[in-house]
Amino acid sequence: MSHELVSVAALTERVEAIFVKAGFSADHAATLGRAIVAGERDGCKSHGVYRIAGCLRTLEAGKVVPDADPVVAEPDGAIIRVDAKGGFSNLAFARGLPVLAEQARKSGLAALVINDCVHFAALWPEIEDITAEGLAGMAMCPSYATVAPVGGTEPLLGTNPFAFGWPREGKNPYVFDFATSVVARGEIELYRRAGDPLPEGWALDADGKPTTSPEAALDGAMLPFGGHKGSAISTMIELLAGALIGDFTSDKALEWLGTTTIAPRHGELILAFDPERFAGGRADPRATAEAFIGAIEGQGARLPGQRRFAARAEALRDGIPLTKAELDELDRLEKEGAA
């Protein structure tokens, strides 16, 4: 398949222009564009250009506020709350990050709670923003109900991503970001578009039976990764990033939205840790971590994110490879929007 190389700057400009033309404020367009281009730059197509149409459909459905002005409340101890005002979460996170980092250094640990947000993006850009501050971080959020709990037959859980990062001096951070479903829902859609069957064990059809059909999976339910372990972690995320922060769990998000064809509305929980404050002078936490991560690498094991960082380096050097179909989609979105 032939590709055209597009610079990160050029693609960012195109994506931002699409969002501005659709009616998003410049601040929202910038943070949305950053997230989508990060997906393409890092070789994660399920969170790249493919996501633009869904964002625009969400706007056309009246389920996101395009010019929402997120409000960061005064910190409540180590808790920082951001009211996203019904906008996409990306700008709310950007507004809350400086306060999160400041409070984490002050207290050793801080939590950023984002409420009333619409969410579609990967979590690793947020985690990398935290590690760039020299802090360790975790992020998690529910979604809308598309995943059956282990032993169940109907959607109840979301894909419920979970991400973690550890800062490394002079090196790429140690970062993982994964859905607690077998794969992200966007991967199912990419299989459908390609006309390929799903691997076994990914999904159930509407009758609760195993299926390899992407269409049947999208009408039925995905499955958690790792059986009962993934199901338990996904439930933890519903409790911490839903019930704990006073926001939707995935079933309530789907009930409010009424469809899985646009981006879900819920909340997000982000934690930041100051390694030195936690270690309390007992040892150098960064040196200890570097020795341990080095031992993993010493066995020839691949660290999470290595493929992403390699794709990023190549994209920054040579440009982002986009297919003719992807370039045509950008042209169409620029001219017509999501319709």
TrEMBL record:
GO molecular function per UniProt: oxidoreductase activity
Short name of any one Pfam family annotated for the protein: Ldh_2
Positions in coiled-coil regions: none
Key words, A-Z: Oxidoreductase
Record-linked InterPro entries: Mal/L-sulf/L-lact_DH-like_ah, Mal/L-sulf/L-lact_DH-like_NADP, Mal/L-sulfo/L-lacto_DH-like_sf, Malate/L-lactate_DH-like
Similarity comment: family membership: Belongs to the LDH2/MDH2 oxidoreductase family.
Record's protein name: Oxidoreductase
Protein species of origin: Thalassorhabdomicrobium marinisediminis
